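RECORD TYPE: inverse folding
INPUT: structure tokens
STRUCTURE:
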């Protein structure tokens, strides 16, 4: 028996090493492609936030001579990107991609879930899309996952840090509060959370000034409001379940009714009070948390789904074997390749509904996750362990 477990662990480690090599290869390949095709726009936006921060220039103005579009991340991001922004551009860009790639890989590795190597391969199409776009989204997903896996580490010290950092960079990090009910030392966690929000608010002032940072937060709020308004009706943004419905009914419906319904649906899982200590229940909540902000954000792009697909992978490993499980996973992977825009760019431009459909399989998976949290009512208590190598049935 011990020999079999050793073989399984050795095989699992080799798969993980092979998966990491594949992820790094994709990251380097996308870096080379971006350099050859001069597609560095997102990285140039990120890099410029650091120089604007230390120069006390507006973080949210357009700088058409440097890059297209504008920055939409919080002031702390200027410091976050500083280590690579100060390097030669080609080196900083390469390390930025590698950092995002490795951080997400490491976070998935930290999840106590059997057969989790499969998640690395499920995520491949979204990883490639994100790497080609030089996105921060892999780090966003990693922050959310680490918020869960580190929730009781040093009484929630690092989990609170990641919630504060993720929120003050891109707002998505706020969903990490969904794990509050699973934290053992809640008082310490709240203390750390307040402490980190204050530290991260004041930290950029060390390289700028208090007046500038306060004004930057005001500008950030305005830029997000403007960005949300322009996202609705956009071809490459609002690839969410909200955008799907808006295109389906051909009406510019406000985000508010979607968010109210979505939050209520998300909260229903928490009515299953008796399962709060069940590892499977907590992992299903993690999967739900990863998918929710992408489905209900007008800023979601195809490359944003690297956040959601990690949740799909967790759901898949926790689900019963069955035809619908396979069909849904296949649908998620298929739409993640973004075939409509690649194969039929003209048609997709004229019919945005084709690309908005990316959100539909993810939404169906999210509904399955919500339903699964209630199935646990009659399920026997079976705790997952990091070294278990068996399928967990709901």
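DESIGNED SEQUENCE:
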């Amino acid at each position: 028996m011990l020999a079999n477990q050793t073989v399984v662990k050795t095989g699992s480690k080799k798969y993980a090493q092979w998966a990491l090599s594949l992820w790094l290869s994709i990251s380097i390949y996308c870096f080379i492609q971006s350099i050859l095709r001069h597609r560095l726009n997102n990285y140039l936006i990120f890099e410029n936030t650091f120089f604007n921060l230390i120069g006390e220039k507006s973080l949210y103005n357009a700088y058409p001579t440097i890059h297209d579009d504008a920055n939409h991340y919080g002031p702390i991001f200027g410091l976050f990107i500083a280590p690579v922004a100060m390097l030669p551009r080609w080196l900083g860009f390469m390390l930025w991609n590698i950092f995002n790639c490795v951080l997400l890989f490491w976070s998935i590795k930290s999840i106590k879930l059997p057969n989790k190597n499969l998640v690395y391969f499920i995520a491949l199409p979204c990883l490639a899309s994100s790497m080609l776009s030089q996105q921060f989204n892999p780090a966003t997903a990693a922050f959310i996952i680490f918020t869960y896996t580190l929730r009781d580490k040093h009484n929630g010290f690092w989990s609170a840090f990641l919630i504060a950092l993720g929120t003050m960079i891109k707002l998505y990090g706020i969903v990490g509060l969904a794990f509050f009910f699973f934290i053992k030392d809640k008082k310490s966690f709240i203390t750390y959370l307040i402490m980190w929000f204050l530290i991260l608010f004041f930290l950029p002032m060390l390289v700028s000034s208090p007046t500038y940072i306060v004004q930057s937060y005001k500008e950030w709020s305005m830029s997000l409001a403007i960005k949300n308004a322009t996202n609705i009706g956009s071809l490459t943004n609002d690839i969410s379940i909200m955008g799907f419905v808006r295109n389906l009914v051909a009406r510019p419906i406000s985000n508010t009714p979607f968010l109210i319904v979505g939050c209520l649906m998300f909260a229903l899982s928490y009515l299953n009070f008796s399962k709060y200590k069940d590892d499977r229940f907590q992992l299903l909540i993690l999967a739900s948390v990863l998918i929710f902000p992408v489905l209900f954000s007008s800023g979601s792009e195809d490359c944003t789904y690297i956040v959601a697909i990690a949740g799909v992978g967790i759901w898949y490993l926790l689900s019963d074997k069955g035809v619908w499980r396979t069909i849904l996973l296949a649908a998620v992977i298929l739409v993640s390749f973004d075939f409509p825009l690649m194969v039929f760019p003209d048609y997709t431009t004229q019919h945005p509904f084709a690309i908005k459909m990316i959100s539909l399989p993810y939404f169906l998976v999210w509904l399955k996750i919500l339903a699964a949290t209630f199935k646990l009512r009659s399920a026997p208590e079976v705790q997952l362990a990091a070294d278990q190598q068996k399928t967990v049935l709901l």
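NOTES: The mean pLDDT is 88.
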